[in-house]
UniProtKB/TrEMBL annotation:
It comes from Corynebacterium pseudokroppenstedtii. One of its GO terms (molecular function) is precorrin-6A synthase (deacetylating) activity. Keywords: Cobalamin biosynthesis, Methyltransferase, S-adenosyl-L-methionine, Transferase. The gene is cobF. Residues 6-230 form the Tetrapyrrole methylase domain. This is Precorrin-6A synthase (Deacetylating). Pfam families: TP_methylase. InterPro entries: 4pyrrol_Mease, 4pyrrol_Methylase_sf, 4pyrrole_Mease_sub1, 4pyrrole_Mease_sub2, CobF.
């Protein structure tokens, strides 16, 4: 039986790897990674940098990532397309592991952030097992993009006793299309948005005058870009910046925190979060 290690590698810095994760990586037989093509070659290069820092002799096995329709017609079609895509990924990865690693050897997956947060690796491993791959799994947690963002901006993720919502850009757009969204955002107060393929913060359902945004792209890498301010003041500028960065690098990973401030409160961001 093979061992599959799912290792959270943080938001792109080799220093985000924990001691336990580094030891697990160094004692593996190979790292398996999806190759997303030339436009996202940086994603593989960051993995190579992590290997160079923690396991320089470990081979990197790459698998061409299958194509995916990123603009399906609606929610049911979106979920069907993701399921199909995951199944094809599982098949290709299982074939590579079976052909490259012997029974008893260990393959490691370096996962962005933490394996538990908006990552499909553990689900794909389940599919690989359903396809007949006999394996057991170990998971090593990592620093999430949420933690990297708040550290870069030197802020807390919430105020005292307040709840936190972590969501995707697609889901936020969907929520913002409902009539009671403004009251929901005020009630939650702290909304972290990940995987925003568009610019959900520009949606008219957000109270632009009383919602503050802390935004970051490529956080913890040498490409890091940060912005903060009232949504009404910076929404369009951040949207332009995001488009320019995507055009420049061919890909983008950005995360942001939206926080509602009571206009009559005394905890405004300019005075408390400089």
């Amino acid at each position: 039986m093979r061992l599959l290690r799912v290792i959270g590698m943080g938001a792109g810095s080799p220093g985000h790897i924990s001691h336990d994760a580094a030891a697990a990586l160094a004692s593996s037989d190979a790292v398996v990674a999806l190759d997303k093509g030339d436009t996202k070659a940086d994603l593989l290069e960051l993995r190579r940098r992590i290997l160079a820092a923690h396991a320089p002799d470990l081979p990197l096995l790459t698998v061409d990532d299958p194509s995916r329709d990123r603009h399906p017609a609606g929610a049911p079609e979106y979920h069907r397309e993701v399921q199909r895509w995951h199944q094809e990924r599982a098949r290709l990865l299982a074939d590579t592991i079976t052909s490259s690693l012997s029974d008893g050897q260990t393959a490691a997956f370096l996962v962005w952030g933490d394996p538990s947060l908006y990552d499909s690796t553990l689900r794909i491993i389940e599919r690989m097992q359903n396809l007949g791959l006999e394996c057991r799994t170990e998971v090593y947690p990592g620093i999430t993009a949420v933690q990297a963002l708040t550290a870069a901006h030197r802020i807390l993720i919430n105020r005292i006793g307040e709840p936190i919502m972590v969501t995707t850009g697609r889901q936020l757009q969907k929520d913002l299309d409902t009539s009671d969204t403004t009251s929901r955002i005020k009630a939650v107060a702290n909304t972290v948005v990940m995987l925003d393929g568009k610019t959900a913060w520009t949606h008219p359902g957000i109270d632009r005058d009383h919602t503050y945004m802390w935004w970051g792209a490529y956080v913890s890498t040498d490409k890091q870009v940060l912005r903060k301010g009232w949504v009404g003041d910076i929404a369009d500028e951040v949207a332009r910046t995001k488009a320019e960065l995507r055009a420049e690098h061919g890909w983008i990973m950005d995360t942001y925190l939206l926080r509602y401030f009571d206009p009559d409160g005394d905890d405004q961001p300019e005075t408390l979060m400089t």
